[in-house]
Structures are given as C-alpha cells and as structure tokens.
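pasting for ref
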Amino acid sequence: MKNYVQIHEKDNVVVAIREIAAGETIEAGEAQVAAKEAIPAGHKMALNDIPAGGDVIKYGCRIGHAKEEIRAGQWVHTHNLKTALGELLTYEYEPVETEEKELPDASFMGYVRPDGKVGVRNEIWIIPTVGCVNNVAQALAKAANGRLRGTVEEVIAFPHPYGCSQMGDDQEHTRTILADLINHPNAGGVLVLGLGCENSNIDVLKPYIGEVDENRVKFLVCQETEDEMEAGGQLLDELIAQASACKREPVSVSKLVIGLKCGGSDGFSGITANPLVGKFSDLLVSRKGTAILTEVPEMFGAETLLMNRCENREVFEQTVKLVNDFKQYFMDHNQTIYENPSPGNKKGGISTLEDKSLGCTQKSGSAPVRGVLAYGQRVEKTGLNLLSAPGNDLVASTALAASGAQIVLFTTGRGTPFASPVPTVKISSNSTLAGKKKNWIDFNAGVLVEDQDLDETAQKLFDYVVAVASGKKVCSEEAGFHDMAIFKQGVTL
C-alpha cells in the first residue's frame, strides 16, 4: 500500500496517507520526488516546483496560491499557501452532463404516519417554545421515560435558549424551526410546551405549525396551569398511549430523506469519507430518494461544481443567490468571508477554504441539483437538494432535520460525540479515529486507503443506513445524546 495518493492527474501535490519521512522518494505518474522534510499524514507535498503566486492544484482544481516559491518535495500548508478566493462573484451557467442511473427499489422498516410522511423512529418529543421552560421539559421527559409502552422508543426534550427577546429573522427562524420539528415524522407524538408570555407563544406558533392531528400534538401553557408537571405528565401519557400502537412496516427507500454534513474534517476527509457519502447519495437518488447538502460557507471555492450540475437555469440562479447571500451575511457583520478552515482542520492537513470546500462538496456525489432550500424550508423535491445553513455542526444538523431529513450522515476526521434531533451517523475518515473512538464512530471510511473498494464500501454504507432507518441505534443514540440548535444572526433584546 502506498504512503501517499495523487487524487487527480492534474494535481501538483500528493496527500500523505502515512507520514512521509524526509528523504523518502515517491513516484506519481512520471514524477519521482524526494521529500525535503517530513510530511505529516493527511498533509500535502509538492510534486514539482511551484512559483510564488502560482496555483496549487488538488482534486484537479486550484486550492490557493503559493505565498512563496515552493520546491518539489516540500510540505505545502498554511505557511506557504493562501486562499485565492474573492468576495461576491458573478457566475456563468455552464451545465455539465450528469449521469443519473435508475436502480432497483429497496425497502426499510419505517413508521408510516397518517399524513403519508414516514418516520424512522417512534419517539415522543417535547418542544419548548421558549428557553424559560427548558428545565420543565427535561424534567417531564425524565419522568415519562419511566412510563414507556408499546413501540414508543424514548421521550426526548429539545431545550434551546430562544423564543423570546428576539427580533426580525431570528424570531422567524425560531418559529419556523420549532414548527418543522413539531411536524417531523420521527416523532410519534409531540408536546409543545409554552410559558405564556413569550414572543413565540403557542398561539403565535400555531399558524407556523399548520393543521395538526390532535391525538399526535398536545399543547401546554405553563402559566395557565396550577401544576405543569402533573398536567404535562398526563398529556405525555396520552401521547405515549396513542403512539404505542404504531408499527414498523416495509417502506420504499424513495421515502428516505438523508442529510449530508461534515465536521472536524482532516486531510483524509476528501479522499475517503466525503467521496463515500457522495457514492451513497448517488445510490439513494438512483432509487428516487432524497439527499440534502448544507454548510454553504463550505461550498465557497467549489460552488461552480454544484452550479454547473443544476438541472436548469432557475435552479442555477437559486444556487448563485444561496452562495452570494451567505457571503453578504459575512460582509454585513464585517467578518472575513474566508475565515475557515478551523484549527482542527489545519492540524489534520486542510490549508485553505478551497481545500476544505472541494473535499466537502464531494458528499453531494454526481447527481443533478434539483432544489435549493431556504433555512427552515421543508424539502419537496426528491433527488439532491442544497440547503441554506452555516457550517456549525449543531446548527446545520438541526437545519437538515427541520427540512425533513430522518437521518444525518456526518463525516469527521477528528471525531465528535454530538447528536441532532434525528439519528446522526458518524463516519470516520481514517481508521485511527475509528479504532480510538468506537463509542463515537458508527462507520469507518478509512478502509478506503487500505485497498478497500469504493463501490463495495458505499453499498455497505447504504445497507447500514437502511438498518438505521429500520431501527438500529447509532452510537449517540446509545449514549442518550440528543441536541438541537437554531441559527442566530441578530439582536437579542
């Protein structure tokens, strides 16, 4: 097995799979290069001399400019490489031909709800309308978990700090995300828990929620009841009773909506975990399922690859707006658009935002982009969709769930224990992480640099996701972890 990989034939760098020792000679194509210094695993080494200001090429694309002359065999990283990206850009629609296969249908065991939506869990959710009742929500969940029956798997509270003292888009975002979660099919029953005096009180929230099944969604205003624990417990018992009769049944995978997210990326992420998830996405879309890619700031530098896969000009224009609106958000707050990658990313071998983005966007596979979603908008089109949300792990994963994802696939090179409102499958980019953090990692993509076949491994991941959709718990669920976070942008009163 080689100690390095040249991802694309046009690349003028290779990525070290294991540390390349100073003086070690590698062969890439016709090039034979001796390392001038030790190259850490996941990091880049120059294949040829690159002049100051010259393009550094990885994934067949520019990932930045050389800050100074880089000699063949030198380590290429933040000390001698800088971003080449600009700010607001104009784009031309240059559509590329996308291959869209049709594969035989497959099925999973899911919960078909009365409205036709399909859940992969049968949980009872407690959704606070305001942070003031978070402790009540958590106490109610703890007590009710001792009274489960039938197929009800767990009672879960989703505390958050919002719902009051908010203005403008922040207030709208809170109401929209809470309404999305209340309508999520993974919840067999929902208790909406309000205080009574908050801006986003239950009466204000109801139009966002829309028409509900009164047997599935219950409302409680704490200020209007003498004992909220007793009243909440009674309502939860009613929800548990009605949800306990729900049964799993065979459902086409075309009903699956899978969110695609990465965090704590390293130099292997764009070689193993993200391409693997891209292959998974193609397998799902080829069976008429739906995948949602988010993290708009981590599209910067690779956005044209997505834009040119848009199925028509209308979707292209929506994607341009998606990208430039997010850049404008940074500029409006006087922040640097390209303040990325993170310290952990850099330690793992990622040097610039282009480097990170070209790896991140591989999670989208090769299917055409069919839809573009605003933050909090629920997915309607099957196939590959793009969603407006930041790169923050908790915020982006919650946004994916709110848009309809029943499961999130989360690739990582550094590892994280976090969860989201839905099962969150952690996919490691390297085998070291998978071996060290077995309590965090659900699937190891690191085998792809150990001579495992990409297509075979993608099928294994597909089968694993079907098993999760059918009830198999992921590591964060086994640990009892459930997180949610709402995107905050503006003033707090």
